[in-house]
Task: structure prediction
Amino acid sequence: MTAATTDRCHHTLSVLVENKSGVLARVAGLFSRRGYNIVSLAVAPSDDARFSRITIVVDVESAPLEQIVQQLHKLVPVVDISELAPADARERELLLATVSAGPETRGQVIQLVGVFEGKIIDVSADRLTVMLAGAPETIDDFEELIRGYGIVELQRTGRVALPRLDRATGVAERPRVVA
Result:
């Protein structure tokens, strides 16, 4: 599947929910019960302590976007749902990876981390743990390149996203609110 095909099949939803225990379980349960596929999921409190923002990248081949949104709206703790089109959003993801890096390859791995503006956060005699934050496509490219050195462990956060700012006004462009 090409990146263009993947982009057409995946949609990013920004779901504002009440910041209460069990809300994430209810959202995840909805996806599980309905057989909807979650590509990526990230959740954290928003700028208002009463709410959390869940960023969900959904696979619209498993169900139409409208159906997913309608089901989410039925959940009581859901306050607002917006679709963030890739062209209208800033998406980022975090990767932590422990990579094999003996004396013969350590310099190459360090150089690669530098090219991608990552950081080395832990070191042992034959391994490095690296951190990289960036656009999902950049994270994909980095992961593919370090795979050749030997990935010992890898963890990715999933996408987080916000609407792009309007260059003239500095105000966030309104994402498409889905009903």
Remarks:
- The longest strand covers residues 89-100.
- Residues 3-84 form a domain with the Alpha-Beta Plaits fold (CATH 3.30.70.260).
